Automatic annotation (TrEMBL):
InterPro entries: ARM-type_fold, DNA_alkylation. It comes from the Bacteria. PANTHER family: ARMADILLO-TYPE FOLD, DNA ALKYLATION REPAIR PROTEIN. It holds the Pfam family DNA_alkylation. This is DNA alkylation repair protein.
Amino acid sequence: MTAEFVLSELQSVGSPEKAAHLSRFFKTGPGQYGEGDRFLGVVVPQTRSIAKANKAMPLDELQRLLDSPWHEARLCALLVLVYRFQDKKTPEAEREKMYRFYLKNTRRCNNWDLVDLSCRDIVGEYLVNRDRSVLYELAASDNLWEQRISIVCTWAFIRRSDFTDTLALAERLMTHKHDLMHKAVGWMLREVGKRDRDTLTDFLERYATQLPRTALRYAIEHYPEDRRQYFLKMK
């Protein structure tokens, strides 16, 4: 269970055509958010399968995958962490090591899928009954991916009808300049609304005029048409 072996597994199922498509989809061109990222052309279900088969990889080998220039190698490492973290047999001390290992590598989670498929299930779950100040440190970072981690992590709290940090971070991040953050903020607000429509409505009554239009559209997606139009006209 080495990084070299996992990379060979990923390469064996990769496709040049798919790699070209993924490079376009994840905006790897000059000046784009994924500039310079490289793809083997492996679809997520295949990466998940390889990650599950190598769930016992030691952290030093996972570090080699996270340091890889290949997008799918980094994703595979993160999925290994997720599967191991979720395993009921994993000791709490090991979960803490994985949480700290993840935080050490937040800048290697350098695209939105890498963030979204991992942060809730590791950082978010670890912080459920713990101090969450680290999320505000990430939100204050100058790094787009750390900022996205901060808000998407709160999905773990939303699932437990705990909205305090989601709303606080949404308020802090809603004036962010990047569209990927507008989508993340709107997405988490929508998740709040699925659990408690009144809480989301109250937030929108206060902040709809300040939310970027993309964030607002995401947030109100499950409202009836007349309510959607109400908030859009406020904007």
